[in-house]
Each structure stands twice: as structure tokens, then as C-alpha cells.
């Protein structure tokens, strides 16, 4: 099966690399061609547009930044993908868009699947991401061996939008856990208890989470190397709020997270890792977490 990958950013690059290593061949497109250069050096073929790539592939993956980017590339893919071709998008976008794309592809006898992933760069690199796959069952089953290049743990949904909502819910946990972590570590610093003491106690308790440990140490060590941009988490939280309000489901924590994330962007932290929102709290409190 001829496979293509569109979008070789922080997450897209290691995912594309795994496909290239598995398949021995890969067609790639990135809006900034230089980001795909290491893949080309490894043997991938570079295309100058999503349309040109789609014409040559039976299966196209994409990992892009937002609804607008997915809408643009999917129009080119849909019109050029061979009959019965499959487009699998792994981005975090809106359920309304993925539902729309699923219907539009079906009209052309093509399949659109939404398969957002949970995990960061290390999991993408090691092939241990968690996958949520929504859409046509036959198409999903057909590409399962390929999906396992990204991770062995996969949840299937009969509609594309349900995979989308699952991802938004998971990212709302990320936002809420980050806020809880920062709130606790700040009070620990203010009271003299110390951030590392709290992280150590959490490690030995039923409340522990890997995210608390890795991001807690990132805060203590002042390491905000991006794995998941502040601006991207803000985008996802906004999507969560929109969907929750549409379905009359409360989103109190998401709305609080939105305020802090917006303040972080205003401080110039948009391209830092999302845990850099701690700088907003530190500025307000006049204290650096140590």
C-alpha cells in the first residue's frame, strides 16, 4: 500500500518516521519543506502539495494544527485520492468538522477516518501512543496493521466525531491536571513544604500520575522545552468548551484553564510547553516554584 504523510511537526515527524521504517517507502508533504528534510534523507519522497501526494497514495495520514489547516488539505486530498482511498487524520480538531469530512469522503467513495492520538513526542517516537479511531469499520480494519506502527492500544468508534470528542475530553484532563499541579506546587513553595516533597508524596499515593511527575520536575527544573504548545492546548480547550456548551454539558474547569492559557499567550509563551502556564501563576503570586 502506497502511504503518504502530511504535516511533519513535533508529533507528525516521529509518526512519519515510524511509517517509513515500517513500510520502506513514504510520500511526505509539509508546508515548510525543511522540516521534512531528515525524512527525505532517510528515503521518503517529498511532494509539493497535498493534491500531488494524494494522487500517488492509497492511504494518507495527516497531522496538522487546526480546523482551518485540515479543511484546506482535505479538499485537495478528497479530490485526488484514488477510489476507495483512505485519509486518516490524527490532528486535534472539532467534531463538527470530522463529521462533515466523513460524509463528504463517503459521497466520493473514499473513506475519512479520524484517529487522534494521546501521548507526546517520546510515545510517538517509541510507537506507544494511544489511538482513538472513528469512522468506516471496513476502512479501520483494513489499516489496523499500519496504525500499530504508532501504538498497540486502539479504541474504535463507529463515527469519526466520537473519536474527536474522546481526544478533546483527554486534553481537558491535561489542562485540569496542569492547573491542579501548579496550584499545589505553588502553595507548597509558599508554605515551605517544597514542591519536591509534594511530588514525592504523590509518587507513593493513589493520586499519582506520570504527568504530575514529569511536568512537576519540568517546573522545578525550569524546563519548558515544547512537547505540546501552550497555543495548541488553548485551541483544544476552546473546542472542548464549544462542544460542551452545544451539548449543555458543564465545562467549569475548561473555562478556568482557558483564562490562564490566554494569559500565557499574552505573556509570549504560546510556543513554550503547556506547563509554562506556571509562569502566569508565578507572576500573579510573586513567587517562583522551587
What report would you give on this structure?
This protein starts with a strand and ends in a 5-residue tail after the last helix. The protein has helices spanning 12-23, 37-41, 50-55, 67-80, 95-107, 121-126, 137-147, 160-191, 195-203, 210-220, 230-246, 252-266, 278-285, and strands at 3-6, 27-29, 45-46, 59-62, 86-89, 111-114, 117-118, 130-134, 153-157. The strands form two sheets. A six-stranded parallel beta sheet has the order 3-2-1-4-5-6, sandwiched between helices. Strands 7-8-9 form a three-stranded mixed beta sheet. With 290 residues, it is of the alpha/beta class. Helix 7 (137-147) links the parallel strand 8 and strand 9. Helix 8 crosses helix 10, helix 8 packs across helix 11 (230-246) and helix 11 (230-246) packs antiparallel against helix 12. It is globular. Helices cover 55% and strands 11% of the residues.
How would you describe this structure in keywords?
single chain; 55% helix; alpha/beta; 290 residues; six-stranded parallel β-sheet
Order of helices and strands: EHEHEHEHEHEEHEHEHHHHHH
**Per DSSP, what share of the residues sits in E-state strands of 2 or more residues?**
5-15%
Instruction: Provide the structure class.
Output: alpha/beta
Regions with little confidence, pLDDT below 50 for 5+ residues:
none
- Quote the average pLDDT: 97
The largest sheet, given as strand count, sense and whether it forms a barrel, is: 6 strands, parallel
> In angstroms, what is the radius of gyration?
20 Å
Count, helices: 13
Can you tell me the overall shape? globular
Amino acid at each position: 500500500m502506497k502511504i503518504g504523510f502530511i504535516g511533519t511537526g513535533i508529533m507528525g515527524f516521529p509518526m512519519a518516521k515510524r511509517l517509513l521504517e515500517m513500510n520502506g517507502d513514504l510520500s511526505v508533504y509539509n508546508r515548510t519543506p525543511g522540516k521534512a528534510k531528515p525524512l527525505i534523507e532517510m528515503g521518503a519522497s517529498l511532494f509539493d502539495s497535498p493534491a500531488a501526494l494524494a494522487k500517488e497514495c492509497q492511504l494518507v495520514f495527516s497531522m496538522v494544527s487546526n480546523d482551518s489547516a485540515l479543511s484546506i488539505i482535505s479538499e485537495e486530498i478528497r479530490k485526488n485520492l484514488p477510489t476507495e482511498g483512505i485519509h486518516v487524520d490524527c490532528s486535534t480538531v472539532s467534531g463538527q468538522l470530522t463529521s462533515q469530512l466523513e460524509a463528504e469522503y463517503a459521497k466520493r467513495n473514499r473513506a475519512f477516518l479520524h484517529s487522534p492520538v494521546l501521548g507526546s513526542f517520546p510515545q510517538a517516537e517509541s510507537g506507544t501512543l494511544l489511538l482513538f479511531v472513528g469512522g468506516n469499520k471496513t476502512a479501520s480494519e483494513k489499516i489496523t496493521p499500519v496504525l500499530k506502527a504508532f501504538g498497540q492500544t486502539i479504541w474504535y468508534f463507529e463515527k469519526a466525531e466520537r473519536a474527536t470528542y474522546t481526544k478533546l475530553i483527554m486534553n481537558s484532563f491535561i489542562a485540569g491536571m496542569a492547573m491542579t499541579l501548579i496550584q499545589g506546587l505553588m502553595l507548597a513553595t509558599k508554605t515551605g513544604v517544597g514542591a519536591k516533597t509534594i511530588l514525592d508524596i504523590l509518587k507513593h499515593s493513589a493520586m499519582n500520575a506520570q504527568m504530575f511527575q514529569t511536568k512537576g520536575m519540568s517546573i522545578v527544573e525550569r524546563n519548558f522545552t515544547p512537547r505540546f504548545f501552550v497555543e495548541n492546548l488553548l485551541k483544544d480547550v476552546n473546542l472542548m468548551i464549544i462542544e460542551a456548551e452545544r451539548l449543555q454539558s458543564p465545562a467549569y474547569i475548561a473555562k478556568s484553564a482557558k483564562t490562564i492559557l490566554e494569559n500565557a499567550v499574552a505573556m509570549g509563551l504560546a510556543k513554550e510547553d503547556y506547563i509554562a502556564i506556571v509562569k502566569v501563576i508565578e507572576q500573579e503570586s510573586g513567587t517562583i516554584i522551587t
